[in-house]
Design goal:
The protein is an alpha/beta fold. Helix content is 32%, strand content 13%. It is built from 10 helices and 10 strands. An 8-stranded mixed β-sheet has the order 7-6-5-4-3-8-9-10, sandwiched between helices. Strands 1-2 form a two-stranded antiparallel ribbon. Helix 4 crosses helix 5. The radius of gyration is 18 Å and the shape is globular. The chain starts with 12 loop residues before the first helix and ends with a helix. Bound molecules: S-adenosylmethionine and iron/sulfur cluster (2 copies).
């Protein structure tokens, strides 16, 4: 995971998104790892905290009815249990701290990173607002592999972040600055409806996707602050957890009946049940080898 990444920001939303896809290819599009003949995910996304300081109009976090700022945060008890679960299956993928809020607002983000980073690569996706030279340096020495900064305001942010990086005295390629200024058409094209929770942007029609496959639950896993596991990062409805990590082992949930039902449905090109029936995400950008491994296993 430390090898993954570019740091040559193109500063054009379309190119930035393309670069982001390419950056993740080596891990998301690799041959899957197996445990007890079951393909494992390559990417574990954690939602550390249910709060954000911004309210971007394209993000469900801006809607109080969908994703209010509850300030709930992931506790060490769950982190330790999760580390045990992933060690048990010899997991060799990577972690991302992103999710349903702003990860750098979790007061223990450095300590959590240190624990997870002992075993796996970690990428933190942030709006950059909480970053300063002190915490950037601390994150670097807490075994974080990459900090990915989504810049929403405009090119004026570049100088500010370059200065923080220089003053923190961390390698330049530790931080990726990506252009997501949301004033142009380019970013608007990229917006998805987060399983029916976002209307803004120039979005694909849900009907056009209803018979399309989706690979997310074959290569990705999404874990909320309280241990609820969801199908993908697009499910902002958060009404249908596939299990909870405080109640069951990760592998039991990953190989359990609920997620299997969704996987089979999605690999057969059916998006019949919520949240998938309201989703307009392509779902096939990554994970081609993982989906193939699951199809072979299911004989479909
Ligand atoms: C929800 S944010 C959480 C991390 C952090 N707050 C940030 O903005 O980078 C994770 C990512 O989702 C993206 N995002 C949010 N709403 C989106 C939407 N409707 N369509 C596509 N991407 C979206 C953000 O731009 C960001 O890259
Ligand atoms: S995109 Fe990130 S910064 Fe913007 S509201 Fe959503 S969680 Fe917050
Ligand atoms: S169809 Fe949409 S909601 Fe369902 S798993 Fe894929 S991305 Fe997630």
């Amino acid at each position: 995971m430390n090898n993954i990444g570019h740091n040559n920001p193109p500063f054009d939303p379309r190119e930035a998104i393309e670069e982001n896809i390419n950056r993740k290819k080596p891990i998301l599009d690799r041959d899957p790892q197996f445990y007890q003949n079951i393909p494992l995910p390559s990417w574990v996304e954690l939602s550390l905290i249910d709060v954000c300081n911004r309210d971007c109009n394209f993000c469900p976090k801006s809607d109080e009815n969908i994703a209010p700022n509850t300030y709930n945060k992931m506790e060490f008890k769950l982190i330790d249990k999760m580390i045990d679960d992933f060690k048990k299956i010899n997991f060799d993928g990577a972690f991302a701290m992103c999710g349903y809020g702003e990860p750098l607002l979790h007061p223990d983000v450095a300590e959590i990173s240190k624990k997870i980073g002992e075993f796996w690569g970690i990428e933190i996706v942030t709006n950059g607002d909480p970053l300063n030279k002190k915490n950037l340096r601390q994150l670097y020495y807490s075994k974080v592999s990459k900090i990915v900064v989504s810049m929403y305001d405009g090119p004026n942010q570049i100088g500010k972040f370059e200065k923080i990086i220089e003053e923190a005295d961390v390698p330049r390629d530790f931080v990726i600055l990506r252009d997501r200024w949301n004033t142009g058409e380019e970013f608007s094209e990229y917006i998805t409806n987060r399983a029916g929770t976002v209307k803004s942007g120039n979005q694909a029609k849900v009907e056009d996707l209803k018979d399309k496959k989706c690979f997310y639950p074959t290569y990705h896993t999404q874990i909320d602050w309280n241990g609820d596991m969801f199908l993908c990062p697009h499910d902002w409805q958060r009404r249908n957890p596939v299990g909870n990590l405080m109640q069951k082992d990760f592998f039991e949930i990953w190989n359990g009946n609920i997620i299997q039902k969704y996987r089979k449905m999605l690999l057969n090109g059916r998006r019949d049940s919520l949240p998938c029936s309201t989703c307009n995400c392509n779902g096939r950008v990554h994970g081609s080898k993982h989906q193939l491994a699951w199809k072979n296993l299911y004989n479909i």
